[in-house]
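Q: How would the structure tokens look for this protein?
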Amino acid sequence: MPIPKDNSNDHHFSVNLSESDVKLLYNALKFYQEKRPISGERPPEQQEPTNHINSMKRILFAMIMESNYHSVDSV
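A: Here is the predicted structure in token form.
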């Protein structure tokens, strides 16, 4: 089993995104995940971990759902 990459020195960013920006990022991740090459077709250092992609998709999806919830609440 490979040793997971140490992400403790990763840079962190704070950004302001509109709802349409979040939807675009979610759809781009979803499309990439469906179309990306299987793991043996690229060197391991160029292959993004599936669990990282899924984690990012869950975060973006939660943001979309929260926005939908609040937009229904305001009607």
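The helical segments are 19-35, 50-73.

Residues 19-33+50-75 form one domain.

Upvote if useful.
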